[in-house]
């Protein structure tokens, strides 16, 4: 298969990222266990970090992967969603594998599935509740690519939730929980405690876990779950004595001091205070793994941490598209991530300029609009993409409700039209609200590869 044919084959199955309404009847972990068993357990036999959370898990996964690479390991990184190219999900520390690796792997999986005789396939579907989903095939493909390439380590980000996520059909070396907030409440639950319980489903008996700063409601769930499973549990707030970030238009300076006396510094190439926290969590967690004897490293681990953090690149996280005028792309799509983005934007660019905003139907837009709108002279709303339904007029009404008379709120037909309009004012531009919006913009600019 060509890469396009490979993606078309993957997308021909149930895609829960596109149709979340089918998630409740499609989510089940036993189907993923069955796939891994029939494929010879490609998920096993390498150092593994497994991450779940509502916010920051993709960035934290990238930092973990980059630091592991700086220690001399070949590291596979599995994240979702992709921004501009589906290969972003399965990479060698953020860099694409050769095209033939993806094509060969997906061709093998297609042959495996289509090679089943009709009665055999029917029984398989009956036993496991349906065909594998798009995300399950992608997860299996990641494991098979990492096995074929004989990698030393893998970093796995959950897709949605944790307990029944396809990535949870393995036992990692360590687990990491990032910030929990209200998201996908129709699927995961309508309280922080219920959502945290789903995320806590990645914890495994005896497998150590590191937990980023949390609201008390979530932290209690994680602690109780860890206690029941006898999980060695580490809290960022309890083990970090100094955490400082300094944000400039050139990047983010990070200083981290731990209670055991260890300290780390790095000049992150990425903008944003949220990136400082995500990088700090990754450095702290890997230091803990070394301290527990589960990660062997060379003498200068501190240098590896610095080098790894400073080499990390991430599409769609306060990504600089242009400096004249300043054009920044960010995938912020929750209230908490919008707050952090707004704080960083105001510190760097003040008030004024243009916000390009796109979100699909069903997203809680008003909390994001409340914190973002006051920072901009004009707002242009647009459909993020044609991946799922969007209602630009409804978006416009939300922003009109929080803007004053000095601000304008307009509709553009698509992301490219919105960006052309925004850049015509020769003032700073921020595009956010959805990773799909960022992806459409990047694809139009031919910036469709990691790094």
Structure description:
- With 451 residues, the protein is α/β, with parallel strands linked by helices.
- It folds into 2 domains: 3-311, UDP-N-acetylmuramoyl-L-alanine:D-glutamate ligase (3-Layer(aba) Sandwich), CATH 3.40.1190.10; 319-444, Mur ligase, C-terminal domain (Protein-Tyrosine Phosphatase, Chain A), CATH 3.90.190.
- Helices cover 42% and strands 17% of the residues.
- It has helices at residues 3-11, 23-26, 29-38, 57-70, 99-114, 118-128, 134-148, 185-188, 192-199, 216-229, 236-239, 273-291, 301-311, 335-349, 366-372, 392-402, 415-423, 435-444; strands spanning 47-52, 75-78, 90-92, 153-157, 174-177, 209-211, 233-235, 240-248, 251-258, 263-268, 319-323, 326-329, 354-357, 378-381, 408-411, 429-432.
- Strands 3-2-4-1-5-6-7 form a 7-stranded mixed β-sheet, with helices on both faces. Strands 11-12-16-13-14-15 form a 6-stranded mixed β-sheet, with helices on both faces. Strands 8-9-10 form a 3-stranded antiparallel β-sheet.
- Helix 14 packs parallel to helix 15.
- The longest helix has 19 residues, at 273-291.
- The chain is globular, with a radius of gyration of 22 Å.
- The two termini are 25 Å apart.
- Residues 447-451 have low confidence and may be disordered.
């Amino acid at each position: 298969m060509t890469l396009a044919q490979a993606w078309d084959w993957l997308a021909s199955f149930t895609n829960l990222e596109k149709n979340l309404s089918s998630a409740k009847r499609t989510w089940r972990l036993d189907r993923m266990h069955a796939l891994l068993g029939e494929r010879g357990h490609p998920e096993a036999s390498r150092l593994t970090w497994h991450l779940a959370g509502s916010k920051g898990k993709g960035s934290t996964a990238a930092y973990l992967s980059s630091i592991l690479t700086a220690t001399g390991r070949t590291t596979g990184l599995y994240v979702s969603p992709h921004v501009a190219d589906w290969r972003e999900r399965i990479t060698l520390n953020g860099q694409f594998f050769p095209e033939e690796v993806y094509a060969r792997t997906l061709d093998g999986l297609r042959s495996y599935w289509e090679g089943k005789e009709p009665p055999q396939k029917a029984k398989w579907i009956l036993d496991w509740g349906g065909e594998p989903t798009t995300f399950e095939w992608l997860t299996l493909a990641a494991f098979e690519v990492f096995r074929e390439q004989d990698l030393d380590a893998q970093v796995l980000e959950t897709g949605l939730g944790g307990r029944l996520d396809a990535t949870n059909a393995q036992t990692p070396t360590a687990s990491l929980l990032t910030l929990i907030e209200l998201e996908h409440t129709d699927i995961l639950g309508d309280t922080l405690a219920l959502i945290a319980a789903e995320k806590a489903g990645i914890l495994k008996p005896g497998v150590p876990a590191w937990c980023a700063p949390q609201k008390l409601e979530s932290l209690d769930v994680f602690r109780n779950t860890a206690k029941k499973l006898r999980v060695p549990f580490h809290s960022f707030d309890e083990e970090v004595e100094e955490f400082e970030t300094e944000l400039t238009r050139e990047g983010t300076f990070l200083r981290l001091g731990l209670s055991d006396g260890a300290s780390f510094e790095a000049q992150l190439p990425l903008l944003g205070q949220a990136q400082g926290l995500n990088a700090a969590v990754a450095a702290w967690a890997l230091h803990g793994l070394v301290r527990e004897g589960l990660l062997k490293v060379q003498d200068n681990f501190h240098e590896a941490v610095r080098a790894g953090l400073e080499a990390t690149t991430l599409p769609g996280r306060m990504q600089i598209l242009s400096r004249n005028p300043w054009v920044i792309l960010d995938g912020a799509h929750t209230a908490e991530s919008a707050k952090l983005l707004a704080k960083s934007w105001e510190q760097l660019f003040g008030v004024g300029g243009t916000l390009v905003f796109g979100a699909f139907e069903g997203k809680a837009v008003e909390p994001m609009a409340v914190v973002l709108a006051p920072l901009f002279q004009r707002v242009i709303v647009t459909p993020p993409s044609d991946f799922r339904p969007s209602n630009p007029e409804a978006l416009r009404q939300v922003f009109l409700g929080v803007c004053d008379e000095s601000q304008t709120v307009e509709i553009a037909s698509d992301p490219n039209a919105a960006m052309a309009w925004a850049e015509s004012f020769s003032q700073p531009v921020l595009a956010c609200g959805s990773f799909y919006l960022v992806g459409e913009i990047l694809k139009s600019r031919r910036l469709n590869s990691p790094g």
